[in-house]
């Protein structure tokens, strides 16, 4: 096993844990900023280090098209290429491929590049090879992620294909066995609770290093998401990390941790930042609003980040209004610092046995922010 998970504290079904890999260790619950094309938009690896990020997410689909997995491998792998010494988890590309109306058959997926329209083929084996070339610490098996509105027959087909592809991914991973790279399987099943439980059971039979829950946060309500998550987690083993894909809003994070999820990624904090919305203890702040034109307060007076330590809302609003790229960068820094601090609070609450109180606080403040989609 190239990855080891140890539970360090529990509060009900919620847990704090330690993930150990050949690269090092990281604590859970954890939030992984999304660096789709090998960088978190607007930030550098040095910025991520300063923020205390332990794991980033990169996207195999984008990197296999530009600059190409072989190019990244030739540059020494994604860590050397991006000058990042922390962990990297790569998504297999299944979600991106399927959201681009690709053609799926039992063997794999054929899709057109978003960059130049050229035709590409992704199979479970090729996805393992691509992520191996990239040098991910944690690979994801190729899955079929059906749209929320899929009829039962399509949901069933997606589960069957995802399980069959999981077997092929595992076998390819064992055969090609790049040292130090772990492989996670992905549970599907839409918001059908019984199908979710079945998909989880059959994915666990693959005996992988960890398990991801995919196909959620795709437009369903938060209560539907949590109702599908609970029976999934119930089937997952306690000694492997559980990664809920695409969830990163404050309430969603806390509620999913309460059900036993450990790892999260979401574009929400960085995407909101680029649109001028900052995350704060009092809820979201739309910094373009004219009311901040002469506001000398930092974004969030309770936030310990460097941006809040130096700049006022008035200055950041001014930068946004005149279109300075630095505004997006600074608000991205704050939003990531804020969400990482929130996840640290969630970990502390699990250790202290006070997660229920924190969930109530977050539900009050963030009720109006919808669950984030990928
Ligand atoms: Zn801040």
Work out the count of structural domains.
2
If you consult CATH, what is the topology of the largest domain?
TIM Barrel
Query: End-to-end distance, in Å?
Result: 30 Å
Q: What is the strand arrangement across the widest sheet?
A: 4-14-13-12-11-10-6-5
Question: What is the share of helical residues?
Answer: 40-55%
The average pLDDT value, as a whole number, equals: 95
Largest sheet: 8 strands, parallel
**Number of DSSP E strands:** 16
Question: Which value, in Å, is the CA radius of gyration?
Answer: 20 Å
Q: State the secondary-structure class.
A: alpha/beta
Tell me which ligands are bound: zinc ion
* CATH class descriptor name of the largest domain: Alpha Beta
Shape: globular
Could you state the CATH homologous superfamily of the largest domain?
A: Queuine tRNA-ribosyltransferase-like
Strand content: 15-25%
